[in-house]
C-alpha cells in the first residue's frame, strides 16, 4: 500500500485546480458511494484529484487506479479493508471497470463499512445497474461529457463566462465580452476543443488512440466480444464516419460488413454508450419516450475531423455540435418537420443563408445559424448553444 500512497501523492502535487469542470458542483460528494462515468479522455481522473486536493485531508484519503499492477495480486476489497482499519475514510478508485469483479467488491465495501466513503470513475460503457452485483440502490451515478464551447474558452483562452439555460440562449442572453471574433474561436473548438488534452502535442493522434482503446478494450470487455467482433465494430465505425448523419438501415449496413442487422444495432448501442456515436431518436405518438433511431451522428465534432478521410461536410459538423452540446442538459429528439425538438421548441440548423420556410407554421421554432455573430428574434447563432453547460 505504501507504493500506492506514494504514487497518489505525486499525482496530487501535479494536479492543477485553477479550473474545475462544471459537473463538480452538481455532485453530491457526501454520498457514501458515487460513480462518475464518461467517455475516455474527458477529464474524470483530473476531477477526482482536484476534489481531493481542494476538500480532503490526504492523511485519511487514498486515490488508486484499478488498472495498477498492485491489483494483479491484491483484491480491491482487501485494500479498502486495510486502509479503513488504519484510519482511512475516503477511497477514490479510478477506472474501476478495469478491475474484473468491481461491482461485487464495491457492494461488499458498501455493506461491510457503512461509515466509509467511496468514489469511483469508469468508462461510460460501464453500467452500475448491470454489474455482477446491482449497485443501483447503493451508488449515485453522474455522467461527465467532453468540454462545452464555454469550458474550452475558459481553459484555452482564460475567458470565464457563465453557463446559460436553453430559454436564456433563446432570449439572446449569451454574451462574449472582450472578444471581437467568436467565430474563429468556435472553429478552433469544433476541430480541437472537445477533449481537455487539446493543448497536448499530437492531438489528432491522441484522439485516435482514445477511439482505438475504446473499441479494442472497453467495448469488448463490457460486451464480452471476441477479436473478430472488435474488427467488425471498427468497420462499422468507418462506415459511420464516411456517412454521418444518416438514417441507419441496419440490414444494408450489415450486408456491407457481413453482419446480421441485430448485431449492427447492438454494436451501435455499444458505440453510443462509449460516447463515440450519438443516435437521434424520434418520439412515440408525441409522448417523450424513446422511439426508433432516426439519425446516427458521431459523438462530437472532433471525432468527425479525426476519423474522416476528408474534411467533414459542414452540415454534419453543425448538427453534430448542436446535438452534442444540447443533449447534456436536455432530451433531444428528431423532428418530423425540421432537425431537432427539445421540449416545446423546434430547431432547424444551417448556414448563414438558412431561410425561415422550413419552420413556417410551427410554434416556438428557431433557425440556428452558423457563421453569424449575433442573433435576432427567432434566429440564434450556433455557437451560443455551446454555453449550455
Verbal overview:
By secondary structure, this protein is an alpha/beta fold. It folds into two domains: 2-143, P-loop containing nucleotide triphosphate hydrolases (Rossmann fold, 3-Layer(aba) Sandwich), CATH 3.40.50.300; 152-387, no CATH class. The protein is built from 13 helices and twelve strands. It has a five-stranded parallel beta sheet with strand order 2-3-4-1-5, sandwiched between helices. The longest helix has 21 residues, at 203-223.
Taking the alpha carbons of the first and last residues, their distance comes to 38 Å
Question: How many helices does DSSP assign?
Answer: 13
Spell out the helices and strands N to C: HEHEHEHEEHHHHHHHEEHHEEEEE
Structural class of the secondary structure composition?
alpha/beta
Number of domains: 2
What's the gyration radius in Å? 22 Å
Shape call? globular
Overall mean confidence score, pLDDT: 93
User: Could you estimate the helical fraction of the residues in percent?
Assistant: 25-40%
Strand count, sense and barrel status of the largest sheet are: 5 strands, parallel
Strand order of the largest sheet: 2-3-4-1-5
Overall number of strands = 12
Uncertain stretches of 5 or more adjacent residues: none
Strand percentage lies at 5-15%
